[in-house]
Amino acid sequence: MDIESTLIPVGEVAAAVDGFLAASPAARAWDVETAFDWSRADAGRLTEGQRSAVQFVTLIEDHLPGYFEVYHRYFPVDDTVDRAAFIHNRELYHFTVRWALEEDTHARALTRYQEAAGIAERGALRAELAAEGQKPFDLPYDHPVQFFAYALVQEKATQMYYQHLRDVVDDPVLASVLARLARDEARHFSFMADVVGRYLRVHGDATVEPIRDVIANFRMPLADTMRGYWRWALKIADVASYDHTEAYEHLVKVIDRAVDARTDRLDELVHFIEEWRTVA
């Protein structure tokens, strides 16, 4: 499929980007150096499972260069696309660079916490992160709505996990870090939800099979490349009573908000998502 032929109009993506940036003014930004009192970080107040969860999510967040490269590859801003696609992708780029900055801040905050709390030594942690960071990351999609539907689920699932983990940890510094991360992920989810809704309104039933494919084959980032991922993921899920498929219900809400009345195909998609949640 020619991805350029299935893009939403540039005005739609620009409106979504403008809305996200308006809700994310520079004055609301936070930085790793001054947002927390790192001297009070204490991994001794965490259970073994909670420390493991911090290590796990640090690896996931730190793979940011791979995630960002996916958007650059599939929505390029160079001469490999025609002028209309370039203009669309350039508008989207305003979001992706802000999103990348915020996600990189998450990786740095979690890394800083590990160092300050005594979980890991900086040099050894760098090497550990590099071992995963050098592995390739890709999303096997050919319809643009899939990139946003995937990120919608992934960002919402991540937000919920950070909230759940925050509620059970006993270190106030880590709780504060997780609260910041969860708020950012909530805004990222809102952007993805906005874009998916726009695709639904513009392309209607043509989005059904692409979104269905995302759900049928969904994997959280690094699930297919990190050694021992599933065993580790199950362990950290137990720590905070978490199931990523909880995010599926939010996709259903996006579908319902985007259309005045479901078509038969959209109705089938919703039933599929709900059944997949039950099976999972």
Q: What's a quick, concise take on this entry?
A:
The protein is mainly α and 280 residues long.
How would you summarize the topology of this molecule?
Layout: H1 10-22, H2 48-62, H3 64-74, H4 83-117, H5 122-133, H6 144-168, H7 172-203, H8 208-216, H9 229-239, H10 248-258, H11 264-279
Helix pairs in contact: 1-4, 1-7, 2-4, 2-9, 3-4, 4-7, 6-7, 6-8, 7-10, 8-11, 10-11
Characteristic key phrases:
Acyl-ACP desaturase; 11 helices; RNR-like; 280 residues; stearoyl-[ACP] desaturase activity; mainly alpha; iron; fatty acid metabolism
Q: Can you give a write-up of this model?
A:
With 280 residues, this protein is mainly α. The protein has eleven helices and no strands. The longest helix has 35 residues, at 83-117. The mean pLDDT is 95.
State the end-to-end CA separation: 29 Å
User: Could you tell me the radius of gyration in angstroms?
Assistant: 19 Å
- Report the count of strand segments: 0
Biggest sheet details:
none
User: What percent of residues are in strands?
Assistant: under 5%
Question: How many helices in DSSP terms?
Answer: 11
